[in-house]
Amino acid sequence: MRKTLRIARRQYFDKQIHNMASDRKRPWDLMPWTRERKMPAVEAILDNEGNLCNTEEKLFETLHNTYNAADNREVDVSSMYREIEEFKEREWVKFSVQEFHDALKNCAKNTAPGPDHVSWRLCQP
């Protein structure tokens, strides 16, 4: 009985995994099946010399030195702008408000706003 149940479970879950990964092409749907594995962050981070960051002070010092390594360095912004290629301005094809609303009707309402911070709630009627 146990062996039969184990085989049936294995076949069921193999089929589910195959459906999620290949048919629907959404392997991230499998994520709720996994358990959260907590790893102490302090013990997982090494400093530049390969030593563990086992105190909060050592962890802060390591992260500070890593992410602020370029602090107080001079940056020539004007040379950076000269390197950026300018594109020709393109003309927009005119469209009506109704066409705009029809195009947005099929979009998801719960997506994150883009770089302009405009959410769908502002665009949709």
Short description:
The chain has 125 residues and is an all-alpha fold.
Q: Which secondary-structure class do the elements indicate?
A: mainly alpha
Q: SSE string, helix = H, strand = E?
A: HHHHHH
Question: What profile does the largest beta sheet have?
Answer: none
Total of DSSP H or I helical runs spanning 4+ residues: 6
Please give the alpha-carbon distance between the first and last residues.
Answer: 58 Å
Oligomer: single chain
Shape: flat
- Strand tally, please? 0
Percent strand: under 5%
Provide the residue-averaged pLDDT. Answer: 78
What is the rounded Rg?
26 Å
Helix content: 40-55%
Low-confidence stretches: none
Q: What is the total domain count?
A: 3
Organism: Agaricus bisporus var. burnettii (strain JB137-S8 / ATCC MYA-4627 / FGSC 10392) (White button mushroom)
Protein name: Reverse transcriptase domain-containing protein
Question: What does this molecule look like?
Answer:
With 125 residues, the chain is an all-alpha fold. It folds into three domains: 36 residues, no CATH class; 31 residues, no CATH class; 35 residues, no CATH class. The protein is built from six helices and no strands. It is flat, with a radius of gyration of 26 Å. The model has no long low-confidence stretch (mean pLDDT 78).
What brief labels describe this structure?
single chain, mainly alpha, 125 residues, 3 domains, 6 helices
